[in-house]
Design a protein that fits this description.
- This protein is mainly beta and 383 residues long.
- The chain is 1% helix and 41% strand.
- It contains one helix and 32 strands.
Amino acid sequence: MRHWSVVAALCAGILVGSISAQGCASSGTFWKRDSLPITPTGLTAVSVIPGMCEGESAGVVFEMPANMPVQRITQVVVPWGAPLGVGGFQAALDVEVYDGVSFSGATVNMGTQVFSLSQVSTSNLQVQSHALNTLDTSTYNIIVGAAAPTGSPAVRRFAICFRTEVNFHPTGTCATGWPANFFTDNAQQPSFPFACNPAITPQRTSLIEIQGQGWRDAALATVTGIPLCPIYYSGVWCIRCCSEDAFPAFYQTFGTGCPSSAGVSQLINATLPRLGQTMFVIVNNLPLNLGLMALGNSNQNSSFGPLPVDMTGFGITNCFLRVSPDLLTTLVGGGGTASYSLAIPNANNLLGLQLHQQPFVFDVGLNPFGGALGNAATFQIGN
């Protein structure tokens, strides 16, 4: 492959100007494996890798803690640089995200591609030097961490990758290299004897998709039998991302009930709805310590018609049914309160499921039906 010839050796130790970047929202998780500051300032030494051609990709693999919930990628960051930090050189990139990455020597099994910007949008990511270019992906619902752990010990991995569609640098070619290209955090020129330094270029971190080979571990990749590291590649791609819990467990009241003789019955969640756990909800203001809990799949439609439904015609005067009563559970309490419990199976297909509930409390003589409907709530199953 001509573009990995000696003319395309890495440009290491280049001093560049301030690299624009930004962190994540305070509620999110910031992911990076390079050694540069989150927001570099002043002169920053990096390595531009001119051997990356149009059609090839750069990526970084991130490892998730064992107890971390499934994540939604909200922002991606891609480095694009030029010698001496010259700004304004542009490129058009595709963005790809993979879940369930594993390794076999230098070969990388990318797992499932869960996102491609070119497949969901008619546009691509426009980047320019010299910057850590960002793209807000919060509207794309990119889910990672759902794939089963791989390896020994088992690890959940995902990869953020960028494919060069068009490099607009006026003098670059695949044969001679592109002066504007992806850059790594490395600031050291290779020295004899040439050997890949695992402290600078750790394995199972940076990825390269090489034409004719596919995805390779950048620390172990070779072209015509010649290792790319450390002469043609060194360091860690300055590729980053932000994420948030994809399916946060929550419990929220959304509609007000009507008063019984003890007042409006409220729903107070004692524990949140999570996989493999039991959700507990306290129902207060029960005049006779007896009621029903309606659990439904919808708060928009029901067998009675579109929700909310005025239940006056059913004898529950000035009360509104706000959830579909798909499942009714008896509430038996004491001292004016009752406890409702829902055991949630440990099944990933339940993640993000939203359900709705509303209590009915018996109150003889309050109205023709003899009771009142309490507040309504929506909850989402998380992990």
